[in-house]
Amino acid sequence: MPEQETYIPAPSRPSRADPTLQQGATGEAVRELQMLLSRAGYDPGAADGVFGVMTKTAVMNFQRARGLTVDGIVGPVTWAALRGASAPEPVPVGGLRSKIVEEARWGLSNAGGIHYKQLRPMDGIHQRRKLPLDTDCSGFVTLCYKWAGASDPNGLGYNGQGYTGTLLGHLTRVPRSQARPGDLVLWARNGRGEHVSLVLEPGSDPLLVSHGEESGPYTVRFSVSHRYHAGADVYWLRLPSVDGAVREGAPEAPRAPPPRVSGESDAPSEVGLSREAEPPPVRH
């Protein structure tokens, strides 16, 4: 039977009670709630102090996992459970994932020699780390997988074809909260792929490697890139074989019909975004 909300003093606030929060609430207490949810591995969206739909969904998922009353209302029991929730262990990035990320980092380091062109067959498909390189967003992520030794994320056996439509049709969709380095995030509008980036660092606002215009590739936060694709559907995508898994059965969401692939490519869709890009993270 789910545990009911009864008063339990919050361990980190002995001098006062935590406020009861629900959808529509705003303020610093909501911001703290959002940060605690993110720490526990539940994505509430941006920590903006606004208790919206995403925050309520994260609260309900947390309550469900902890055996609490699943109502999306944060009372003393939920507060206490959140403060007692340890941060999830970081998932080690090894094998193919680390190699895919390394290829993307190479692209960042050599952005001056990489240009945005819609070429098929893909430039560089048979020559690792070719420079100069002429490619588009889907071509760039495909090359990261190819050069790392992974299977073709388009499902085409690296025949030089592929675009956002083949990526969307072939890869497995995962929740944003489960995205890992080397996964892809793809925007589509009215069933048509618009842009794809590679996840460099997951989290509440994942850091992406994006090649969305001539000045790419560059690093950019998901929230910044998403503004350039307002109104588009977002898909977080994974190639199961990267982790040694074999996809079985139908995915959770229905797949797009097999797209026409001969000569298909992706136009630049983030012109000007590089001005808001972040410097690549320094590794120690």
From TrEMBL:
Residues of the NlpC/P60 domain: 134-201
Similarity-based family: Belongs to the peptidase C40 family.
Name of this chain's protein: Uncharacterized protein
Record-level Gene Ontology MF annotations: cysteine-type peptidase activity
Span of domain Peptidoglycan binding-like: 26-82
InterPro entries reported in the protein's UniProt record: NLP_P60_dom, Papain-like_cys_pep_sf, Peptidoglycan-bd-like, PGBD-like_sf, PGBDSf
Region spans: Disordered: 1-24, 247-284
UniProt record, GO biological process: proteolysis
The organism of origin for this protein: Pyxidicoccus fallax
Keyword annotations from UniProtKB, A to Z: Hydrolase, Protease, Thiol protease
